[in-house]
Every structure is written in structure tokens, then in C-alpha cells.
Amino acid sequence: MPQxxxxxxxxxxxxxxxxxxxxxxxxxxxxxxxxxxVFLVLSVAVTKYGYEKKRELGLYExxxxxxNVLANGFVPxxxxxxxxxxxxxxxxxxxxxxxxxxxxxxxxxLGGEPYSLLTLKKVKAGRNxxxxxFGTLMSLDGALLVGFAAMxxxxxVDLWKVILIGLIGFGGSMIDSVVGVLEExxxxxxATTNAVCSIFGALAGLALL
Length: 209
Description:
The protein has helices at 12-28, 30-48, 51-57, 66-81, 83-86, 89-108, 133-150, 159-184, 190-208; strands at residues 115-116, 130-131. It is an all-alpha fold. Helix 4 packs antiparallel against helix 6, helix 6 (89-108) crosses helix 9 and helix 7 (133-150) packs across helix 8 (159-184). The protein is built from nine helices and two strands.
């Protein structure tokens, strides 16, 4: 019988850190909190999707640590803390970027053989700095979902802003892949790569939203 997917996604330290970040975000803006929940729900969905194939490829991570939570959540949390001064754009941009990256990494491995951004040659699934056409498309879709979720939560988010949020998230995901090339060469790690992705989304959101 096929093994069922483990429900756990975070270790205990990761859960505690995620709760602390969620409380901090909610204290500054309840809309931020709802958008964070959207990210969490979408993340669980794409992580569980295609579980059997990911397990066969050795790419399914059923439990992530506090380091992963910190790498993805620190920048959005700081954007929430400073939102009274900088507005909501940086927060939404950072959430769009980490969502796009999550879609690209979790769904891209199901979309055929990836290509290395460094050599443009086919490489093994799950390799840092590699992309698939399907994963690239899914990264845009993930960011657009964040944009649509933001429409009822923040003033002035119309269809054009939704598209812009989608492009910001897509850009963050591509930056993540580019930085992943350096990770393959021993420069940085998964946490720093994720942090760069969220920083790009925050800066782009601050400038464009």
C-alpha cells in the first residue's frame, strides 16, 4: 500500500516561531495576517500535491525547521512591523515572492526535467539554480493568487495591481533561482537564498506598490 503523506510540515521550534511571527503580523495589520494565512494554506496545498512522485524522487520534505520559517518569514514580519512608515506594498511584495518561489519549487519538480540556469543543460530534479517551464509558469500563478487575495484586504488593489503583484512575485522566484546557482557553488545556503527572494519582493513592492 502507498505510504500516506505525513501531515506535519514544521518541527516544534518551527511551529512556535511561526505562531510568534503570525501574532506580530496580526498586531500591526489584520489584513497582513489574513494574507499570511493565504500563503500558509497555498504552501501546504502545493507541498502535499504530487506527494507520491516527490517521495519517489527523494524531494518530499514533510517537516521543516525553524530556520526555514525564519528565512521565509523574517522579511515579511519586519515589513509588517515597519508598515506604519512604509505602507503595505513591501509586505505584499514579500509574500508574493515567497509564494511564487514555493509554487516553483514544489510544482516545478513535477513538470519534467529542469534546466540549469548556469549551463542551460538538463539536470537532476531538485537541483538549486534550475528551472522548468512548468515551475516557472506556476510561480507566476502563485504570485497572482496572492494579488487576488490582496484585493479585498488593501485599498487601491485593482486588477492592474494584481498583475503587478504577480510580476513582483515572479521576479522574486527568478532571483531565487539565480542565487541558487551560487548555492550550488557553495556560496550561501537554502536559507540565504530564500531570504534574498523575500527581500527582492519587499523592495520591489515598496517601490512599485
